[in-house]
Amino acid sequence: MVRDSINATVEQFANAPGGQILASARGAIQRSLKYYLALFTLGFVCGFPLSSDLISWLTDKDRLPAGVEIIVLSPVEFLFLQIRVASYLGLAFVCAMVVGQVTLYGVNHAAVKRRIQEMEIELPKPGPRLVLALSASLLLMALGALYAWYGLIPLLLEYLTTDAQQADLSTKWSLSNYAGFIVNLLCASAIGFQAPLLTTILLRSGAITRQQMMASRRIIWFGAFVVGAFMSPPDPLSLFLVAMPIILLSEAALAVDGLR
Fold first, then answer.
1. pLDDT per residue over 63-99, tens digit each?
2. Reduced to 3 states, what is the DSSP secondary structure of residue 211?
3. What tens digit of pLDDT does each residue of 174-196 get?
4. Going by C-beta distance under 8 Å and a sequence separation of 6 or more, which residues neighbour residue 256?
5. Buried/exposed 124-147: b ≥16 CB within 10 Å, e otherwise
6. What are the sequence ranges of the domains in the chain?
7. How many of the other CB atoms lie within 10 Å of CB of 21?
8. d(Cα 88, Cα 98) in Å, to the nearest integer?
9. Is 124 helix (H, G, I), strand (E, B) or coil?
């Protein structure tokens, strides 16, 4: 009975304009896999030579909490960390292209065009719209990175270090774990801060209605905490500080859309 209800819901969504839009975007993304691979390779090649300087900068003693020492536990740890950092840059390029494609294919879908004509709205050409979406994505990414670097990371490093030192534990951190901690929080914040853009794209494209999104608040909030759990350290404070901006920014975008 439950399975039949789920299947009916999925089928209904697939036949709705929103489901058709997502299917169209998915097809476009699948056809562009070679471009994603090329972008990832470009980001990796550009990022690998810079990763060594970045790691040295991150491990500078002036940026470490008092009493913390960074150690290398294996001969290949530094190399693997360079590969990891370069891969993150490649993924960032790919994510930017995905945002642009979803925006472009969403607004050009027949269902969306029909709805725009019904509302008698005159939109700018796809070129400027695509540039606007990419610019907004980059701006939000930068704001997320700034939030993590100047607020989230110092607070959590100080909290975790003090907690360990109060228990009379030696604070020697491995290079990969320390750098991974910082990169994960930077990426989590950069991705999380895309929430208002994603919310706006879904609402403006017609993929989901305002009423449907408001009814799905609990699912959105739960998803924010799932993202926080995967990309933050396993403690309640980190989870809360990563998940809350996603929720607040989504709600802000929803509120702004309601003013239209």
1. 888 888 888 888 888 898 899 889 888 888 887 777 6
2. helix
3. 888 888 888 888 888 888 888 88
4. 200
5. eeeeebbeebbebbeebbeebbeb
6. 17-258
7. 24
8. 15
9. coil
